[in-house]
DNA sequence: GCTCCTTGTTGCACCTGCCGCAACGGCGTG
DNA sequence: CACGCCGTTGCGGCAGGTGCAACAAGGAGC
């Protein structure tokens, strides 16, 4: 909507990847050198970026402060953290927490294992809807109009040989998720990584987030991960309960409960 | 420089304080409601803010991700962290690390103690130059032209009865710092908090940062804090060494060393 | 049921303030 | 010494940000 703010945000993403020179940023943004400079100056004033000793621009100190505050505002993250850490300790794999954020699904937290390869995901990033386990775990339990809206215009780009590349196949995958209760990513984004994921529900019984266990196929294949679903179920049930969710009794499994 | 980016940064600060409504933000910015909305939408698109369940706007998840990356770019912080944590464990008070960042001094890291009152400082925030211990510890060892530039237009606002309110007194304070090797904040900003601070030097023997120990007067007065200066000296010397600083031999204590 | 309030959204006209350009100076490197 | 890179400044043009008004939708309160 607002061009210059959009550009400023792009600058943040650029210098987050690695500190960059003013000329490089101007080139990547496709704007004149002086324009990039003015943007950078404003951002530096605000402490969001900073000029480093080597002359390149990097992220600013203020970001760390804002993030500290932000973490306090993330009720979900705060609530889920202990459960995620426990899961991480017990399964020894990378754990992700992703949540619905408007019409997108974003990574909200991540537990990494010491010595493990870093995965592509970053906190705050949008999840690739048609490949990630967490997105399937969430989408499978959304009303169809929500799914429709979120997938509108979505490109089913092939990243590996197992990527789901069309809507009908994806719908079948969601149906499978609903049936068995968990979602999988069978090396659909990176051919060396796979994962299992399960949904998290809130007090209104809506699925608002999902937790996944990701591993390198070399260290644990899908079959091994499936063996971890009981552990994962325990984790997601715990988080859901902390969010105020109440396990449905047999009589409340019908749609009548919607009337509270 | 760039108005809309400046506003966007203000928005970030506003919602960092607490989640706010669109109308509130518009009022604080002094702009029309629709303008504020457009700014917010752009920021939300970038993940820097987000619309919360209660309709108010808060900080976005992407900030947490950016901050993770940012922390990796902060060499000083990375290097100093272990020493600060150790100091925190040993003195049981709040520990600050502040650094020169262009023509400002900003908090770079902070060790809080469980159960302690939260202090005003936030990572990334500019230090109040005439009251903070860290700023005196840094300014006392800067070339006079740098001090001049940084204090240009600075207001010596009184925050408590002990605040230094004019330049000559401040210069005398800096001289005292040079003499005894550490700086103090005698309840100059908040009447219930005081601190001691010492400088950190880099490989070129320049003072680039400072570490402070802050406490509530009720829990430890200035006299008690002064007793901690040996511990503080150990910490700053350790960080300085990690930055490549070499303790000066007796013959290099004269100004000749400036010629390297 | 009703109203009142807040918010999201859209269209439009105005004009601010951002953009691109060019030129100069400083600094470090080859 | 030349060259490249960067910061800075002034200026004209115009894109795009801004303010305004009007409407719809949702919620709270009565």
From TrEMBL, chains A, B:
GO biological process: negative regulation of DNA-templated transcription
Keyword Transcription regulation: yes
Keywords, comma-separated and alphabetical: DNA-binding, Transcription, Transcription regulation
InterPro entries from the UniProt entry: ArsR-like_HTH (IPR011991), GAF-like_dom_sf (IPR029016), HTH_MetabolicPath_Reg (IPR050707), HVO_A0261-like_N (IPR057527), Tscrpt_reg_IclR_C (IPR014757), Tscrpt_reg_IclR_N (IPR005471), WH-like_DNA-bd_sf (IPR036388), WH_DNA-bd_sf (IPR036390)
Residue ranges annotated for the IclR-ED domain, each copy included: 62-245
Keyword Transcription regulation on entry: yes
Gene3D superfamilies (alphabetical): 3.30.450.40, Winged helix-like DNA-binding domain superfamily/Winged helix DNA-binding domain
Pfam families the UniProt entry points to: HVO_A0261_N, IclR_C
Domain HTH iclR-type: 2-61
Gene Ontology MF terms in the entry: DNA binding; DNA-binding transcription factor activity
Entry protein name: IclR family transcriptional regulator
Organism: Ruicaihuangia caeni
């Amino acid at each position: 909507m607002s061009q210059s703010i959009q550009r400023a945000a792009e600058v943040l993403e650029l210098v987050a990847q690695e500190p960059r020179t003013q000329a490089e940023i101007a080139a990547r943004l496709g704007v004149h050198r002086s324009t990039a400079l003015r943007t950078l100056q404003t951002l530096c004033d605000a402490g969001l970026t900073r000029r480093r000793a080597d002359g390149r621009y990097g992220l600013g100190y203020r970001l760390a402060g804002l993030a500290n505050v932000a973490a306090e505002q993330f009720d979900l993250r705060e609530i889920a953290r202990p459960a995620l850490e426990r899961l991480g300790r017990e399964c020894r794999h990378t754990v992700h927490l992703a949540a619905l954020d408007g019409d997108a699904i974003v990574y909200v937290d991540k537990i990494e294992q010491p010595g493990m390869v870093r995965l592509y995901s970053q906190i705050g990033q949008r999840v690739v809807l048609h490949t990630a386990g967490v997105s399937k775990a969430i989408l499978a339990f959304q009303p169809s109009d929500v799914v429709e809206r979120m997938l509108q215009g979505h490109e089913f780009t092939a990243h590996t040989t197992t990527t789901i590349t069309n809507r009908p196949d994806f719908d079948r995958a969601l149906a499978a998720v609903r049936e068995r209760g968990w979602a999988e990513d069978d090396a659909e984004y990176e051919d060396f990584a796979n994962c299992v994921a399960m949904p998290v529900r809130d007090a209104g019984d809506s699925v608002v987030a999902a937790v996944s266990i990701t591993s390198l196929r070399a260290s644990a294949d899908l079959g091994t991960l499936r063996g971890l679903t009981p552990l994962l179920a325990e984790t997601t049930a715990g988080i859901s309960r902390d969010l105020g969710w109440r396990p449905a009794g047999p009589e409340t499994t019908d749609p009548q409960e919607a009337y509270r």
